[in-house]
Design goal:
This protein has 324 residues and is of the alpha/beta class. It has helices at residues 58-76, 93-105, 144-165, 188-198, 204-208, 246-260, 286-295, 306-321; strands spanning 127-128, 132-138, 169-171, 178-183, 219-225, 232-241. Residues 1-27 form the signal peptide.
């Protein structure tokens, strides 16, 4: 939770063939057949009515202004980096293991208790064991041009996550189990009913989160286990505020979808990483990709404890970083 593609459209071009008319030397110079009357001028097609502009409330405009100022302030401080880390952010296999334990095993919030912070203890591995089928939805007040931009961005990111994890993750038009909802402040009355429709047995305390989100909550994701009390995910819903400027909105997508895959916590020691509330990095980093590889290693199973998974992750971390 953040507080604080290439997609090619192919257009078919229809070419109209022009037939040339030729006169024949064998045709008679005179004929008694009267020529067909020339058609009169055609009436131009009336223009299609312009779509009704979507009205935007003052509350939504205020959020746009606020988040634009937040992004500008962070960029002015050299934050929201998009380079994925570099020579100034080295990390070792020991650091990678430590960060994995804090981010994949601890939980930011207590399970089933809304936004109540957890006690920070290490829990169990949470991940998807079935294919992840992602769908993208927009509230009625999200502008059309933004829908195109955001759809392309999510598709590109999902393709990247599938390559990184080796797990079947794809965007689908139906039968989805991971829903990415872009919603405006003006769509908030439809948010809770939509979530209830997607997950009918949703915990009421989880649903209450969406009733009145404070603006400090930029975006969030809720993942649901296949079985009550289990650790293998079966459904997830990420909510992204449409009022964010482009980079903050993309940052939300990167963090919330990755958290919905099982990297559910933040750590102040994780660097370079988006799983750190300091906002230094806006987009998934090289270390974050490694965390996902570790989580989706076939030997790592949902429900494993820290003691069970630690030897596996220690070995794989050393392999990823050459034992540094």
């Amino acid at each position: 939770m953040r507080a604080g593609l290439r997609h090619i459209a192919l257009c078919a071009l229809a070419l109209a063939g022009l037939a040339a008319c030729e006169t024949s030397s064998l045709a008679p110079r005179e004929t008694t057949v009267p020529p067909h009357a020339r058609p009169g001028p055609t009436e131009p097609e009336p223009p299609a009515p312009a779509p009704e502009p979507r009205s935007q409330s003052l509350a939504s405009r205020d959020l746009e202004t606020y988040y634009a100022r937040v992004q500008a302030d962070l960029l002015a401080q050299g934050l929201l980096r998009t380079d994925g880390g570099g020579p100034d952010t080295p990390f070792t296999d020991t650091m990678l293991l430590r960060n994995f334990e804090r981010i994949a095993l601890a939980e930011e919030y207590e399970r089933g208790a809304g936004l109540r912070p957890s006690d920070g203890k290490l829990g169990k591995i949470k991940k998807w064991e079935q294919p992840v089928r992602v769908t993208i939805e927009f509230g009625d007040h999200v502008p059309d041009d933004q829908r195109t931009t955001d759809s392309n961005m999510v598709i590109q990111y999902i393709n990247r996550l599938a390559r990184v994890t080796g797990h079947p993750i794809s965007v689908t038009g139906g039968g989805a189990n991971f829903h990415v909802l872009f919603m405006s402040e003006d769509d908030k009355d439809t948010l809770a009913p939509r979530i209830r429709a997607l997950v009918p047995d949703v915990n009421p305390s989880a649903l209450e989160i969406f009733d009145d989100l404070p603006r400090s909550i930029h975006c969030l994701v809720i993942a649901f286990s296949e079985q009550r009390g289990g650790y293998a995910y079966g459904d997830a819903i990420a909510v992204i505020r449409s009022e964010h400027p482009d980079l903050l909105r993309q940052s939300c997508v990167h963090e919330e979808i990755a958290q919905g895959l099982g990297l559910g916590n933040d750590s102040p020691n994780a660097r370079p990483s988006i799983f750190n509330d300091d906002d230094e990095f806006a987009l998934l980093t090289t270390q974050d990709e490694m965390l996902l590889r570790l989580l989706y290693d076939p030997a790592v199973v949902a429900g494993m404890t820290a003691d069970q998974v630690r030897p596996i992750v220690r070995q794989r971390a050393a392999e990823l970083l050459g034992g540094t």
